[in-house]
Amino acid sequence: VEIHNWNEWENVNKRVTELVIPAKCCNEAEWNVFDVSGLKWLKSIVIGDDCFENVNEVKLIGLNQLERVEIGKNSFAKKKNDRPRPINPNRHFYLKDCERVRELKMGRYSFSDYSVCEIENVPSLEVIEMGELNEESRNFCHASLELKSDSERMK
Q1: Which position among 5, 7, 76, 108 has the lowest Cβ density within 10 Å, counted as fewest Cβ atoms?
Q2: How far apart are CA 128 and CA 43, in angstroms?
Q3: 111 close to 140: Cβ distance less than 8 angstroms
């Protein structure tokens, strides 16, 4: 399913397996939490550039079918392509209890003013990519980064 705005989100089928958010979408004030924990069949989340600027909390929790999360640049950030505003203690990212997730990728400047990035109990996780090599990226630049997992498959 492809979502462009808040009204479409309210009608999402709970058995959806792929969630796609095109670039420059879902920036309405109503989006202050991005919680897809109710979408238990979700296998893939792809979010374009410049999305969800007003979201303070991202919850990817208990998604046992989830395999891949890909987020473009400048998403989940108030300020685009630049130094972030001072850290916001109320902006948190959680990826937890997702037994099949293999990849977490995000583009430059996404989550630049988030204070927490917590990744826990993701035993299949092989790849975490934040930003671009040899480029200023500022993903979670002031955040506490925690990876809590026994996975030996990390690359």
Answers
A1: 7
A2: 17
A3: yes
For residue 89, give both structure tokens: 């203690």
**Cα separation of 125 and 128, whole Å?**
8
Cα separation, 129 vs 20, in Å, equals 19
Q: pTM for this structure?
A: 0.88
Query: Which residue has better confidence, 41 or 12?
Result: 41
Token pair listed for 120: 């826990």
Q: Of 2, 69, 64, which is closest to residue 38 (Cα–Cα)?
A: 64
Whats the size of the chain, residue-wise?
A: 155
